[in-house]
Amino acid sequence: MPMPATSEATHQSTEATHQSTEATHQSTEATHQSTEATHQSTEATHQSTEATHQSTEATHQSTEATHQSSLQLNIQE
To answer: So which domain of life are we looking at (predicted)?
Structure first.
């Protein structure tokens, strides 16, 4: 026995609401994953910047040591 038109329209409306809710959920999840990926990228950039800083500092110390060694050689001559 076919459903009355009103009952069918209510059913379709409920189904459409369900699909909309599911799509919103998927969108929210995608946004969360994007936010997490951005956070990880930012953290990786921070670590890279820190490593570059440490490398620059080590180069500075090496240059200073070379300079001091050169001074010592000049004194010995």
So the answer is: Eukaryota
Tens digit of pLDDT at every position of the chain (77 positions)? 566 778 989 999 999 999 999 999 999 999 999 999 999 999 999 999 999 999 999 999 999 999 999 988 888 76
Structure-token pair, residue 58? 């080590």
Burial letters 30-49, b for 16+ CB under 10 A, else e: eeeeeeeeeeeeeeeeeeee
Q: Identify residue 4 by its one-letter amino acid code.
A: P
One-letter amino acid identity for 14? T
